[in-house]
Design brief:
The protein is an alpha/beta fold. It is built from nine helices and 16 strands. 40% of the residues lie in helices and 29% in strands. The strands form five sheets. It has an eight-stranded mixed sheet with strand order 5-8-2-1-11-15-16-14, sandwiched between helices. It has a two-stranded antiparallel ribbon with strand order 3-4. A two-stranded antiparallel ribbon has the order 6-7. Helix 3 crosses helix 4 and helix 6 runs parallel beside helix 8.
Length: 291
């Protein structure tokens, strides 16, 4: 019995070999969010996966949001929070909370979980060393632009600080807050931020963790998962997607059009989904390739 179990384990390790060879030394940007971020067991599992990647010779970079934590904090402080076209309307008052929660709470939590395994993670905000520069973004409602406050569109990425950390063997953990050129601070979508950083780092992969299995062929009529598609196919599909999936799939599209060879959307509720995607022949979720 023990020999059978040992053989099965050896099989898993050997299956990982071609992927270990292929991705050794590769930079992989992982967007972390959703339920994987609020469930304690999944949080610990995510930290283990990130450290495993580092020990396996990959160079992981984590970009995170923190929607549930921000909403909870705004509620507690009695600050009203509304959404327009899927984006949080961010008043100056709300922005202070967004910044505090993302940089001071969520980022610290992730860094702490990873660093239980060694001196790896270093927390950064998109404001640090001009990592992300953003301009004010409007939401489009019925074809007209609507002001949604301090919500930004990334216009420039200076990845030097992240590259220096990677070169030092560290795991950068980046919160999706950006600077504006006139001293304003912007809340930026974490999916978009992860894609912009993946392009700037010439990453080998962008992985977006979400609360669904991947992209469905024709949701909700059809629950068949699309396991692979190219940029042109995705571009045609985006107008028909649910509002929650749009920023995730647009991030994948931006990444592959910007030179990243592969982008993936995975179910972060599946324990160790990151390792299953990278190191097994089947993979899981939906993979986007360049056209």
């Amino acid at each position: 019995m023990r020999a059978g179990t040992a053989h099965a384990k050896a099989g898993v390790l050997i299956e990982a070999l071609p992927w270990l060879e292929r991705f050794h030394g590769a930079t992989i940007v992982i967007k972390y969010g959703g339920n994987a971020m609020t469930d304690e067991a999944l949080k610990e599992g995510f930290a283990e996966d990130i450290v495993f990647l580092r020990y396996a010779g990959l160079r992981p970079v984590v970009v995170h949001g923190g929607g549930p934590q921000i909403s909870e904090h705004l509620d507690r402080l009695g600050i009203e929070s509304t959404f327009t076209a899927g984006l949080r309307v961010t008043t100056p008052e709300a922005m202070k909370v967004v910044r505090m929660v993302l940089v001071g709470q969520v980022n610290r939590d992730i860094v702490g979980l990873v660093n239980r395994h060694g001196p790896f993670a270093v927390g950064l905000s998109g404001e640090d060393a001009h990592l992300f520069t953003a301009e004010r973004k409007s939401a489009m409602v019925d074809g007209s632009p609507v002001d949604i406050g301090q919500v930004g569109e990334i216009v420039k990425v200076e990845p030097g600080a992240v590259q220096a950390l990677i070169a030092d063997g560290r795991i950068p953990v980046v919160s999706s807050v950006a600077r504006g050129v006139d001293g304003e601070v912007f809340n930026v979508n974490a999916d978009t931020a992860a894609a912009a950083l993946a392009v700037a780092l010439s990453a080998e992969k962008l992985v977006v963790l979400t609360d669904v299995e991947g992209l469905y062929a024709n949701w909700p009529d059809n629950t068949e998962l699309i396991d692979q598609l190219d940029a042109a196919e995705l571009e045609r599909l985006i107008p028909s997607l649910s509002s929650g999936m749009v920023p995730k799939m647009e991030a994948c599209l931006t990444a592959v059009q910007g030179g990243v060879p592969q982008a993936h959307v995975l179910d972060g509720r599946v324990p160790h989904s990151l390792l299953l995607e990278i190191f097994t022949n089947e993979g899981i979720g939906t993979m986007v390739m360049p056209s």
